[in-house]
From TrEMBL:
It is an enzyme of class 3 (hydrolase). Disulfide bonds join 72-388, 414-422. This is 3-phytase. Belongs to the histidine acid phosphatase family. Keywords: Disulfide bond, Glycoprotein, Hydrolase, Signal. CDD domains: HP_HAP_like. GO terms for molecular function: acid phosphatase activity; inositol hexakisphosphate 3-phosphatase activity. It holds the Pfam family His_Phos_2. Its EC number is 3.1.3.8. The keyword Mitochondrion does not apply. Residues 1-20 form the signal peptide. GO terms for cellular component: fungal-type cell wall. It comes from the Eukaryota. It comes from Penicillium malachiteum.
């Protein structure tokens, strides 16, 4: 044995037999392999730093099993899903086009450095009519997202459908949301979609009041913070200077960098690869993601004092479904809306709310309100009703757990059930005590509906299951 190895053995207090295992020529595989890696190389992923712009990714979990606890079976599911991956909105598209025009207007014939790929790159939006529409190409395509999600949930919850009954689905009235609902239905019901799913389209008009998947709150409230959020951080100025130095004549600003980073995050929705993502550093993407966190937090999340009341519409109605159970209310309640309809619901449930408002001048690392984990494109919140047998730690009964983007998120005030679930009775009493009143908080006119009703009064026809006729343009309400 080499003398330096002997020295190490003495220093570590090991026997020569142990050293032989570590140093010998004929070491068995089990002797040197670790059962668990001590490395976590995926601490950074672009999929968590583009806010709600880019492709779906599952939420980073707390290590709680996604499957029902061993003593439990799911008997009711209430889901709300954001539409699938889409092209940029029309307003964002105009900003992107302005920054691209600035780049191409320089007359540079040969691009250098980080932008060398521009010699062969083309913009991915076919024309302005496609702004806001779901994408249809690439591995992250929005239409594929909806279909695959339906397939996955058929595998997970298919036993809750008897194969014969007509199951209503509920979509808000925007084209991309309706398209997601249809694709999800095709994936879940398969050959039976045309006969056993009944798509109900709920208008997004404010006049729907509380009988809506998209309730609004138009009272005169202070939106100063939301209206004046930062759109750049110091890293953006550094990025602009770097790109300008690589190509003489280029004069990008911090705002251009924000627009181009937005464009890059949307590009993955339509293509398998985006060269633009590699133009910017990890630090720059972390800052970009936090700017998007701020927007959701202060404009449609817990940073707006009225958003919990908006989300209470859905949460309060879902309490009724859970307490009625699958026998009376049905086992499958599938809903489809927008990101800014899910964030108020999360606020109303009181989960993922920071202890303090998010700062505007720095990043509070460890922030629970990371929108890449909350509302990526195709993001969804699933409430499971569990029927459980008695265990050493819990009684036989009915429990509730929250699943956000396929990761269990324990209810803050109650985790005493199997798999950190909450007894339905406790869950109900806590929310009944804490939920704000939407009608009074948001000054809903008495002429508007005062409660959510469509889950109990729905159509069972299949007339809306498919698009009838061409879609003139993708952006806008399909039913107002």
């Amino acid at each position: 044995m080499p003398s330096f190895i002997s020295g190490v053995i003495c220093a570590l207090g090991l026997s020569s037999g142990v050293a032989a295992v570590a140093y010998g020529d004929s070491v068995s595989k089990s002797a040197v392999e670790k059962q668990f890696s001590q490395e976590f190389p995926e601490g950074y992923s672009i999929l968590k730093h583009y806010g709600g712009n880019g492709p779906y990714s599952e939420r980073r979990s707390y290590g709680i099993s996604r499957d029902p606890p061993a003593s439990c079976a799911v008997d009711q599911v209430i889901m709300i899903k954001r539409h699938g991956e889409r092209f940029p909105s029309a307003s964002m598209g105009l900003l992107i086009e302005a920054s691209l025009a600035k780049i191409y207007g320089t007359g540079i014939s040969k691009w250098e450095g980080d932008l060398s790929f521009l010699d062969d790159w083309t913009y991915y939006v076919p024309d302005s009519c496609w702004y806001g529409a779901e994408t249809y190409s690439g591995p992250y395509a929005g239409l594929l997202d909806g279909y695959q999600h339906g397939v996955d949930y058929r595998d997970r919850y298919g036993s809750l459908w008897n194969g014969e009954s007509i199951v209503p689905m509920f979509s808000s009235g925007y084209s991309r949301v309706i398209n997601t609902a249809r694709k999800f239905g095709e994936g879940f019901f398969g050959y039976n979609y045309s006969t056993n799913a009944a798509l109900n389209i709920i208008s997004e008009s404010a006049s729907m009041g509380a009988n809506s998947l998209t309730p609004t709150c138009d009272t005169d409230n202070d939106t100063t913070t939301c209206d004046n959020l930062p759109t750049t951080f110091p890293q953006f100025k550094i990025a602009a200077a770097r790109l300008n130095s690589q190509n003489a004549g280029l004069n990008l600003t911090e705002s251009d960098v924000y627009n181009l980073m937005s464009m890059a995050s949307y590009e993955l929705n339509a293509r398998a690869f985006s060269d633009w993502i590699n133009v910017f550093t990890q630090d720059e993407w972390v800052s970009f993601g936090y700017i998007n966190d701020l927007s959701y937090y202060y404009c449609s999340g817990p940073g707006d004092k009225n958003m919990a009341a908006v989300g209470a519409v859905y949460v309060n109605a879902s309490l009724s479904l859970l307490n009625q159970g699958p026998e009376k209310a049905g086992p499958l309640i599938f809903n489809f809306a927008h990101d800014t309809d899910i964030t108020p619901i999360v606020s109303a449930l009181g989960v993922l709310v920071p202890d303090e408002d998010l700062p505007l001048d720095r990043i509070p690392f460890g922030n629970p309100y990371s929108t890449g984990d909350i509302v990526p494109q195709g993001g969804h919140l699933t409430i499971e009703r569990l029927s459980c047998n008695a265990t050493a730690m819990s009684k036989k009964g009915t429990y509730v757990r929250l699943v956000l983007n396929e990761a269990v998120v324990p209810f803050n005030e109650c985790q005493s059930g199997p798999g950190y679930s909450c007894p339905l009775s406790n869950y109900t009493s806590i929310l009944n005590k804490n939920l704000p009143n939407y009608i009074s908080t948001c000054s809903v006119p008495k002429s508007y509906p005062q409660y959510l009703d469509f889950w109990w009064n729905y159509n069972t026809t299949t007339r809306l299951n498919f698009q009838r006729g061409p879609i003139a343009c993708q952006e806008g309400d399909a039913m107002s």
